[in-house]
Design brief:
The structure is a single chain. Strands 6-5-18-17-19-20-21 form a seven-stranded mixed beta sheet, sandwiched between helices. It is about 30% helix and about 20% strand. The protein is globular, with a radius of gyration of 24 Å. With about 675 residues, it is of the alpha/beta class.
Length: about 675
Amino acid sequence: MAEKEIVETSEAEIAVHWQEEGYYYPSSDFIAQANMTDNSIYERFSLENFPNCYKEYADLLDWYEYWHTILDTSDAPCWKWFVGGKINASYNCIDRHLAKNKNKTAIHFVPEPLEEKYEHVTYQELFVRVNEFSAVLRDFCGLKAGDRVTLHMPMVPELAITMLACARLGIIHSQVFGGFSGTACADRIVDSGSHVLITMDGYYRSGTLINHKQAADIAVEHAAKAGQKVDKVMVWQRYPGKSSTSTPMVNGRDFFVNDVLKKYYGARVEPVKMPAEAPLFLMYTSGTTGKPKGCQHSTGGYLAYVTATSKYVQDIHPEDVYWCMADIGWITGHSYIVYGPLALGASTVIFEGVPTYPDAGRPWRVAQDLDVNIFHTAPTAIRALRKIGPDEPAKYNYHFKHMTTVGEPIEPEVWKWYHKEVGKGEAIIVDTWWQTETGGFLCSTLPAIKPMKPGSAGPGMPGIHPIIYDDEGNQVPTGSGKAGNICIQNPWPGAFQTIWGDRDRFVANYYARYCKNPKSKDWRDWPYLTGDAAVEAKDGYYRILGRIDDVINVSGHRLGTKEIESAALVVPEVAEAAVVPVAHEIKGREPDLYVALKPGFQSSPELAKKISDAICDEIGKIAKPRKVWIVKDMPKTRSGKIMRRVLASISNKRDVGDVTTLANPDIVEDIRQMVQK
């Protein structure tokens, strides 16, 4: 067996101190137009009707051949869905819409530079471009079904085109987040065994044209040292016919896609009829040992799940303009920018830039310009927009019917701002909980059926049956409000099939801990360990507390970092908060709290005390921070995620490691000097 990476906890009694919130209800107008208003869906997707209930999701797609087995458990826990079925993801996202909607916009591209016009790609144009690039992949690159290809691309239409071209041929794509280094890209090339790298010469980030080609050179070099040769590097041009990089092309290895495409204009490539259980893509996610895990997602099961959840949770209709302000380099972008919305024939927005550049009004101007009516983003972005431009949404004439939050728990205070200011009190909000591994939503409200509750993700999705275990494997009583390790009792079609090339790690990480019988072929014996802590309220809504290891044990009391951060955000001056554990010889650990303020407020000892007192008031003195550090800004990744690891290293007087890839590396030294002086 591979090294186990299960996060061990001494207990699952994790302190939860967010107050229970009241309900918010959708309007009658929203309910009247919603895709799903039938409450019986929960009964249809009960455990008694499992797994046959998922035929309802699969029937949203077009199949070449129907399946003979809806769920194959013979290789438990590597589940296979819709076995015997033949399907193509590219066909379902493009071809089947052409008869009625060929002239409808499939992709709205918003470049970061304000002086550049929006680009609108119709379904017909998408069909043409995907076919032509499919021919390049097949005839020029020599790729075929089952081959892996690594993509290291920014947020541009060419990324979606590349993914769909791979899907058309049954090539397994592995998109690496554009902000990752060449070295990180190399790790994924090596693990997947890719011989072709597809990239772009440059892209914009916060007003700067980034030289992205240099990352490809580093990736190829490092991959070669690890024994994986890349034969071709295909380089899309940010401006066709014009180079946006000072890094030279390597003769015989590097090719501008825009030049190669000229030989394939007008090419048509028939979609390959792929087995439903054939892999569609790999999505790498970090593990507790540091080695990224290649989550292998299927074609039929995954596509059925993201199509259905896009329709019923996001309430996407073909006439909607839908904007998921995430990055396609992560699972959210795969599921809910590309595959889900396009499978439904909607118009999806791809945004090159960052939401706060050049100012915090940018997202609302885009929403106004494109008449966006469904908006989807992460609490990180919401908190940033609330901090920098709390009054900006009111300045623009847009109207969202629906908003989604994703990626991490959202504090009730931030939720309420999102609802009131961004949604203008009109839009419903779905707070979703899921993971890279799960493919699509696990917990959320169905917006026309279940009311919203700030701070809670909602109940299990139809067909998803969560269960909370303590560390000894005992079920925590349903609706008790006691915290523990949230698992899913049953398989579902969107779940990843395995870790690429490492089945033992897959089993050890996700199934071994609560497995009732390792030799069993019965899915009931294999609950899925999410690695998250949670509580279930009496109403069946789940509140996610974050990763099991995002917990600070203070004098035997386990405090979820999100609760402390949420308490800090109650203080009006606070824009962002991050809690990290600090070693203490008596208590074991105690929390350090880092906060950034809203514009116009200044740091002072009085404010620090006010924040500390608020936490004591909201949670109790056990949660009182060792120190409240008021900083100019948080160390963040280019995607806006606060790097708590860096803050923890500073607080514990450890080496912060490599911070050059951060969006704001200079802030690290400023904070270190403050804390360690």
